[in-house]
UniProtKB/TrEMBL annotation:
Keywords: Redox-active center
Classification via Gene3D superfamilies: Glutaredoxin
Pfam families listed in its UniProt record: Rdx (PF10262)
Protein name: SelT/SelW/SelH family protein
Lineage: Bacteria, Pseudomonadati, Bacteroidota, Cytophagia, Cytophagales
Lineage: superkingdom: Bacteria
Length: 92
């Protein structure tokens, strides 16, 4: 089975590259051995979407806000390693 792939689609017009890169770094640091790749995909029109293996797991437009780091880690964990604790990033 192939390692999970995360895509972070971000708006270049809005200058959200640094936010996308920070989220990618957070995911790669947390899921060092579980993730195979985190890709940054430039877009336009205010997009900030996160896909895991092609499935949309977070959309800024749908939620009306950016994801918190903790929230995004939980979403990824729940899909790729539900038994894995996230320490301080775990739900209460």
């Amino acid at each position: 089975m192939a390692s999970p792939r995360v895509e972070i689609n971000y708006c270049t017009q809005c200058r959200w590259l640094m936010r996308a890169a920070w989220m990618a770094q957070e995911l790669l640091t947390t899921f060092e051995t579980e993730l195979g790749e985190v890709a940054l995909v430039p877009g336009t029109g205010g997009v900030f979407d996160v896909h895991l293996n092609g499935e949309l797991i977070y959309s800024r437009k749908e939620q009306g806000r950016f994801p918190e780091s903790k929230e995004l880690k939980q979403l990824v964990r729940d899909k790729i390693a539900p038994e894995r604790p996230l320490g301080h990033s775990d739900r209460n």
